[in-house]
Write a structure and sequence with these properties.
HTH-type_TetR-like_transc_reg; mainly alpha; 11 helices; transcription; Tetracycline Repressor, domain 2; Arc Repressor Mutant, subunit A; DNA-bd_HTH_TetR-type_CS
Amino acid sequence: MTAPLRLTDRKREAIVQAAIAEFRDNGFEVTSMDRIAARAEVSKRTVYNHFPSKEELFSEMLHRLWSSAATQTDAVYKPGVPLRDQLRELLDAKMKTLGDSNFIDLARVAIGATIHSPDRAQVWVSRLNQREETFTVWVRGAQQDGRLKAVEPVFAASQIHALLKAFAFWPQVTLNEPLLAPDKQREVVESALDLFLCWYEIPLDKSSI
């Protein structure tokens, strides 16, 4: 049984949720600590006790964004296992994140806040690339085993993630389109597998099996 949150923890959570809502509704620049305090129904002093600045609140929001995206399958290449099966497992994990409404909501707020700040945008892109490094590791492993053509692993990782994000991230973040239904998610994943493996996979030499 989960222990109930302490009053101070409940107030902190209320502040974070209020900040996310304010950033989403009004943008980072317009949002003030006064507005966040009012929305969280706490004093402004309480807000500052938990977060010294609006930037600290934004950092907390980004931390939650990265944490929600971090529960991915370890991208360890497995010799002898069909590439399609391995890659499907990785893409299914990625699609699970992209199908999380909380992740999409946080991403929408984060992107909106970075538009007018190159420094914040640089942090966002850097963190996003780190989340995709696991797939880069998998590509290197498959190449070393002679199963994938020579291609820059980071380039390949960006390609296949773009195939998913074109349907399950950018339309939802920028156009507020609904999350993909499970059958549509499967269609996007299988199509991405077809395109990626058709171009990069090196077929096994059956005569050596």
